[in-house]
């Protein structure tokens, strides 16, 4: 059934996602501090709001899709934020990628105000947001997940309730560790092939058909072969996410040695000036390390 949805954070991911909710028949009122996303939502038939308070006042559901935990905490917990202005029993679905601990704090403070909270980070990139084919990993209570399911089905194709508050963020952290690590290994494999005098693309194509094949390799093979690194998913967002991996591992009390190395590679790529490039640009860093 149609609901009134506030959507805060209309960036690369949020703007197309909000558009899908309009198309599904919901009344969507969006807010962003930048004008581009507001214009995109208006064009898709949504309403826009000049403040968080205005966006959430009448909402049944509030969705946030913001860069990182400082922005989410400001928008949700801040003086003029969601918790101060949403009606009791409103469902807040935070779809940003942030630290599990921050999601748990938000869920706890929400509960104190009678606001129901889910963490529901996504995987699938800009293409997944545009095509409504995201994978969505959800943390929170069974009842709240059940209330959110129909809305999430307008945004993604794989929607899984993975555990209590913060659990969605732990699964997303594992996702980001896998993606960065697999990119780095594919880059090293390609460098090995080319430095041995072979045709890198041919070699990677046969690997893609065997056990070493992966969604990452299928999606990134052109980026690698053509050294085409426009985003996509930016190195500086992945650097943020490797910090989340580190924080989650610390909370879980485990050491993840390869995660540490991958995090250092991503950090070095950012320091090397590659922060605005696609994460496949780890190849450019590894080539530079080798004087290639
Ligand atoms: P983005 O930078 O394009 O969008 C974030 C939006 O939030 C911007 O439009 C910005 O103006 C807005 N914003 C920032 N502070 C605000 C505030 N205080 N009030 C209102 N609006 C504010 O980022 P994105 O690529 O859309 O990513 C959003 C989240 O999704 C991040 O956590 C990212 O890690 C995650 N994510 C991104 C991708 C991807 O491929 N881009 C994939 C999966 C997950």
Describe this structure as you would to a colleague:
The chain has 292 residues and is an alpha/beta fold. The N and C termini lie far apart (57 Å). It contains 14 helices and nine strands. The protein is elongated and about 65 Å long. A six-stranded parallel beta sheet has the order 3-2-1-4-5-6, sandwiched between helices. The protein has a three-stranded mixed beta sheet with strand order 7-8-9. The site of nicotinamide-adenine-dinucleotide has 27 residues, from helix 4, strand 7 and helix 7. Nicotinamide-adenine-dinucleotide binds next to helix 4, strand 7 and helix 7. This is 2-hydroxy-3-oxopropionate reductase. Pfam families: NAD_binding_11, NAD_binding_2. GO terms for molecular function: 2-hydroxy-3-oxopropionate reductase activity; NAD binding; NADP binding. Belongs to the HIBADH-related family.
